[in-house]
Every structure is written in structure tokens, then in C-alpha cells.
Design goal:
This protein has helices spanning 3-6, 8-16, 102-109, 142-146, and strands at residues 22-31, 34-39, 52-55, 76-85, 90-94, 115-124, 127-133, 136-141, 162-171, 176-180, 189-193. 13% of the residues lie in helices and 40% in strands. It has 2 domains: 3-98, Nucleic acid-binding proteins (OB fold (Dihydrolipoamide Acetyltransferase, E2P)); 102-193, Nucleic acid-binding proteins (OB fold (Dihydrolipoamide Acetyltransferase, E2P)), CATH 2.40.50. It is elongated and about 65 Å long.
């Protein structure tokens, strides 16, 4: 569809927006692939439920199972404008851009050598995933546990066990925190923000 000629008011509105603009609107529809937002000062979209669109990764910094864990139809939201999707004639938005990044806060308050107690979330051949709280899950690699590459899931650990881990390095640009077990110290795993 040629949006520019078929819907000139919509096209002109979208062209007038600038990256970083704060737009408000009402959640019009929630789909498994994202959320449509009817913008307060924008025209109606001729086909879609709203001119604004929030992709799943832009809903929240925190891990969630379903978009309805973050927003509800009818909820009024403020979002940052990311860009003009000319193919769908919609404003790509971010809800999380207006919230503090919990990884930055974690990095600010965490130093190398700091010990955490966490809960084993998953035991897999590559190591142990440890829930550190605050939405962060760390990986202690198998080599940290037995000192050798993994042949199978680490033994002696079960989901729900509480264990100690040590932060080796915080990599803010890479959004990783490297971990090891307190009794070892040569190798590192990584924490994955959720």
C-alpha cells in the first residue's frame, strides 16, 4: 500500500515525529508479537488498531511471560518514539526507554569480588544458571564447578539450591556480569539480564 498517497494525514503526522519524542496514548490491542497504541495526538490508522506500536523487547527491562504482564488494553501509557516504520505506517515506540535500566543500577552497586547468594534456576551441560534476584540470572560455567569442560549437567546441584557466587567483572557495554564460585577463581561465567 502506498501510505503516502492513501493516507496523507497519517504519513504527515509520522514524518513530523523525531526520535526521542515522548508520545502518550491508550493501549488499543495486545498481540503475541507486540502492542498497538492509539496515540492521543495522532490520527487513526486505517487498518491497524493504533498508529503506535510497541515491540515485545520494548515493553520492559524485566523478564515477563506475556505482554499483559506489563500493559492492559485501555491503559494510558507514555512512550519514547524510536522511529517511523514506513512499511506499516506506524510509530515504533519504547515503554522501557522511559524507565531506568536495572542493569545500570546493578552495575553501579556491584564490584568485582562481591559475593552473592543465589538460587539455582537450571542445571544444564554448560553450567548452572543462578537467580541473583533483581531480575538477573547468572551462569556459573561447568569448568568453574569441576575444573573441566562439561560432559553433562553439573552434579551435586538441584533447582532450588541456594549457592554462593562471586562477581569477577561487570561489563556494562556488553551487559554482562562475570561470575565464579568462591572456591575457584580462574574462570568466569556471565549474568544475563532478564
Amino acid at each position: 500500500m502506498d501510505w503516502q498517497s492513501e493516507s496523507p494525514e497519517l504519513w504527515a503526522y509520522l514524518e513530523s515525529l523525531h526520535r526521542g519524542d515522548i508520545l502518550s496514548g491508550t493501549v488499543a490491542a495486545i498481540e503475541p508479537f507486540g502492542v498497538f497504541v492509539a496515540l492521543d495526538d495522532g490520527p487513526d490508522h486505517p487498518i491497524l488498531p493504533g498508529v503506535g506500536f510497541l515491540g515485545i523487547p520494548e515493553l520492559s527491562w524485566r523478564r515477563f511471560d506475556d505482554p499483559t504482564d506489563v500493559v492492559q488494553v485501555g491503559q494510558h501509557v507514555a512512550c519514547e518514539f524510536l522511529g517511523f516504520d514506513t512499511y506499516n505506517a506506524e510509530a515504533r515506540l519504547s515503554l522501557k526507554a522511559l524507565e531506568p535500566d536495572p542493569f545500570e543500577a546493578f552495575a553501579d552497586r556491584t564490584v568485582g569480588g562481591q559475593e552473592f547468594r543465589g538460587t539455582v534456576e537450571k542445571v544444564v551441560p554448560i553450567g548452572i544458571f543462578v537467580d541473583l534476584g533483581d531480575g538477573f540470572v547468572g551462569l556459573v560455567p561447568s569448568r568453574e564447578i569441576d575444573g573441566r569442560p562439561a560432559a553433562g549437567p553439573a552434579e551435586g546441584f538441584e533447582v532450588g539450591d541456594e549457592i554462593a557466587v562471586v562477581v569477577r567483572e561487570v561489563d556494562l557495554p556488553g551487559r554482562r556480569v562475570f561470575l565464579s564460585r568462591p572456591e575457584s577463581g580462574q574462570h568466569a561465567g556471565s549474568v544475563l539480564p532478564t
